[in-house]
């Protein structure tokens, strides 16, 4: 039994309080703890509360710990409340309040130089008064002089204008909301960004409305940021005019868009026509490109004399109906033009009013055959409403000719869920021929796989995720889970979900309720497999260890008998 003030567990050694007494003998710390770089490595593994304690030990520890505590401020209220300790919203200050502000500013400077990253998301509480106080009483123009990353997400004009308080020439990365839709002068924000942060390297713009409402302002902003290397926009923001402007920028190497409401929502009409004007020397540094366009427009773009042929990653979304031949032509063009391409994703996410299988419109292995001609391609993904028409023999050819494959998602989530030609045996060729494969997605009829009794199943060596999308699992507990347990390593995660609802095209936002219900029914069956699989894999692993131990023991016994027989 322990008393009410006694701890049941002893405190960790580094958290035990130091008790000072008359008999206390000072023991000098190890010399290694006086090396700032070593302290920084140790303190960086601790949380904020621990480093607050470290900051109270001595001056050297304090400097190292405070640098880590204030290196990244996750939101502005925490910074202001910690430094000032109170908020006051009276319109006028008394003499004591003005003195308090001066003391606060002097204290603020002690920490301001340590802040490298500031993230602020506008919330319900209003900090305008404190920000105004800061603007009036700051001793230097740059409030956070060593700031290199600013993330400022807002909803109203007042908060938008307050972002300028932290803008200066030293900022290199900016994550910011677009000006509110109702704001009359939307260009004012972009003018401030270009004037105050002209040396930006990364721009992440989050806007909840169509690009044509601010396209001219974005073009002017890009012209004012000559050192820009990376842009992240909402989907449908890479219009012909914006891509043309980006093609003339010397250092741009990453043009990316993000799906989902957090990044924003554009209008697919803005990219119905994709005909950027490229000049000689276009995209000298571009390596990663995301785009939403028709396949024929992408093919024409990549056949341009000044196309970005040094791409290593290409992501294509298209929301219009396409023939399989158009996809084949695009893949053939890319294999001829982009010899450095290692990551290719093509998502044909058009959803017609009536989902009915049309065999002539299915993607086949011949449609995809050009991917085998790429010199460095290790990641490939294709998405389509119809299942890929591919046989087990063609899967074996694909795997055997692609030993460098690391990630393959072969349309594992079609919306027309007719019985596929593939079953669980389609996984076996990848275990035999693709030792580096880490991510795999296939649409299969998951039944009891009829494997030849003499065939030994070799497990995946590097697989980390297996995606089954909208596949149907027959007898999940008695057939599917035991078979997968023979192939999947312990680190592999089984996934049964869809990504169609993430896309922002109108047709994807209006998927039929019956279709969604059918998909949910399929994913529920896979939940049983997901629950069983880790235990079955562990059981197989333990069994294999016991078998190895038994074989080793038998071998040792045989060697012992051979030795004794030789002596006799």
Automatic annotation (TrEMBL):
Q: What is this protein called?
A: F-box domain-containing protein
Q: Which source organism does the UniProt entry give? A: Rhizopogon vinicolor AM-OR11-026
């Amino acid at each position: 039994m322990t008393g009410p003030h006694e701890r049941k567990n002893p405190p960790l050694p580094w958290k035990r309080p130091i008790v000072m007494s008359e008999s206390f003998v000072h023991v000098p710390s190890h010399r290694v703890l006086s090396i700032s770089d070593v302290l920084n490595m140790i303190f960086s593994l601790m949380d904020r509360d621990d480093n607050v304690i470290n900051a109270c030990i001595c001056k050297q520890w304090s400097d190292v710990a405070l640098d880590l505590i204030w290196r990244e401020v996750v939101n502005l209220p925490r910074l202001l409340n910690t430094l000032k300790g109170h908020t006051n919203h009276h319109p006028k200050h008394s003499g004591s309040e003005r003195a308090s502000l001066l003391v606060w500013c002097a204290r603020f400077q002690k920490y301001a130089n340590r802040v490298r990253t500031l993230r602020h998301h506008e919330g319900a509480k209003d900090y305008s008064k404190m920000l105004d106080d800061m603007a009036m009483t700051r001793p230097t123009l740059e409030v956070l002089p060593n700031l290199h990353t600013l993330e400022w997400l807002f909803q109203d004009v007042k908060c938008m204008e307050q972002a300028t308080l932290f803008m200066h020439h030293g900022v290199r990365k900016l994550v910011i909301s677009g000006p509110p839709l109702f704001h009359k002068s939307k260009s004012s924000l972009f003018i401030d960004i270009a004037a105050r942060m002209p040396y930006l390297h990364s721009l992440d713009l989050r806007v909840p409305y169509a690009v044509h409402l601010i396209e001219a302002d974005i073009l002017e902003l890009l012209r004012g940021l000559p050192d820009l290397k990376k842009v992240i926009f909402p989907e449908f923001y890479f219009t012909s005019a914006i891509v043309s402007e980006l093609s003339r920028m010397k250092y741009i190497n990453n043009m990316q868009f993000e799906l989902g409401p957090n990044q924003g929502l554009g209008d697919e009409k803005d990219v119905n026509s994709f005909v950027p004007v490229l000049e000689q020397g276009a995209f000298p540094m571009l390596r990663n490109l995301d785009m939403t366009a028709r396949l024929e427009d992408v093919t024409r773009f990549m056949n341009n004399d000044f196309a970005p042929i040094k791409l290593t990653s290409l992501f294509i979304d298209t929301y219009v109906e396409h023939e399989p031949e158009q996809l084949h032509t695009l893949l053939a063009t890319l294999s001829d033009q982009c010899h450095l391409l290692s990551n290719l994703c093509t998502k044909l996410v058009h959803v017609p009013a009536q989902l009915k299988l049309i065999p002539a419109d299915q993607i086949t292995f011949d449609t995809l055959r050009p991917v085998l001609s790429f010199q460095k391609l290790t990641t490939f993904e294709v998405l389509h409403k119809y299942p890929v028409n591919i046989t087990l023999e063609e899967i074996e050819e694909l795997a055997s000719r692609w030993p460098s494959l690391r990630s393959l998602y072969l349309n594992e989530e079609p919306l027309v869920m007719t019985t596929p030609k593939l079953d669980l045996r389609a996984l076996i060729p990848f275990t035999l021929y693709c030792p580096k494969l880490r991510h795999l997605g296939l649409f299969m009829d998951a039944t009891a796989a009829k494997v030849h009794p003499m065939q030994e199943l070799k497990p995946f060596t590097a697989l980390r995720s297996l995606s089954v999308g909208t596949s149907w699992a027959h007898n999940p507990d008695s057939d599917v889970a035991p078979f997968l347990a023979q192939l999947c390593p312990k680190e592999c995660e089984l996934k049964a979900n869809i990504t169609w609802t993430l896309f922002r095209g109108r047709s994807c936002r209006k998927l039929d309720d019956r279709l969604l219900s059918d998909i949910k029914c399929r994913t529920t069956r896979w939940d049983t497999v997901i629950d069983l699989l880790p235990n079955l894999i562990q059981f197989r692993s333990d069994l294999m260890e016991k078998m190895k131990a038994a074989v080793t023991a038998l071998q040792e016994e045989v060697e012992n008998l051979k030795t004794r027989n030789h002596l006799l």
